Amino acid sequence: MNPLYVILGIVALLILFVIAIYNGLVRLKMRVEEAWSDIDVQLKRRYDLIPNLVNTVKGYAEHERELLEKVTQARTNAMQAGSGSAKAEAENMLSDTLKSLFAVAENYPDLKANQNFLELQRELSDTENKIQASRRFYNTNVMELNTKIDTFPTSIIASLFGFAKRDFFEAAGAEKEPVAVSF
After folding, report:
1. Phi, psi at residue 95, to the nearest 5°?
2. Can you list the domains of the chain with their CATH numbers?
3. What does the alpha-carbon distance between residue 83 and residue 144 come to, in Å, rounded to a whole number?
4. pLDDT confidence of 113, banded at 50, 70, 90?
5. Among the listed residues 2, 70, 85, the one whose alpha carbon sits nearest the alpha carbon of residue 36
6. H helices of 61-152, where?
């Protein structure tokens, strides 16, 4: 057997190995980007629902103007946030203000019975569930990508081609606290 063929065979196998790892990393990176896009789609839906919800509540809760302004400001901040941790923080603040809005709505029996409000509340609740599912999907893909990037020998190829680890979409400190229930 000619040593040149052995060396060429080893080089060819090594090249195929690098290509396979590279393509796997690209696939994972694209899944992470798709998952982030799914979060953005649900957030856009939430942003579109919030003004309708706020306007419905305004008619019933005129003296709750400060809370309504906070919800509107939180929505604006969330829409203008960049990506990554700033976006996650802004979204968590928006979630907190929405919880306060629904708590205020409990004080208005006529509002709670209003069909428009009930439909908007249902839509927003559905959207919040979809956002949570999208965040879990994103975090699962980030975990897979980060694990691949940290695992040998993939870590060598990842660093050679500039693949970077991604941040998880984490809940804010207030969202991690247990909910207080009182009767």
Report:
1. -60, -40
2. 3-132+146-176 (1.20.1440.20)
3. 20
4. low
5. 85
6. 65-80, 85-105, 109-113, 115-150
The dihedral built from the CA positions of residue 147, 148, 151 and 156, taken in this order, carries a sign that is negative
Cα–chain center distance at 68: 24
Distance CA 82, CA 40 (A): 12
Q: What is each CA distance from 124 to 41, 90, 127, 130, in whole angstroms?
A: 14, 17, 5, 10
Rounded (5°) CA angle 75-65-78? 10
SS (H, E, C) 16-77: HHHHHHHHHHHHHHHHHHHHHHHHHHHHHHHHHHHHHHHHHHHHHCHHHHHHHHHHHHHHHH
Q: Count the neighbouring beta carbons within 10 Å of the beta carbon of residue 25.
A: 18
CB of 74 closer than 8 Å to CB of 43: no
109 or 177: which leads in pLDDT: 109
Two structure tokens written together for 91: 């979204």
Instruction: Write the burial class of residue 115 (CB in 10 Å: 0-12 exposed, 13-18 middle, 19+ buried).
Output: exposed
Cα 90 from Cα 74, distance rounded (Å): 7
User: Poorest-confidence range of 24-38, 63-77, 107-121?
Assistant: 107-121
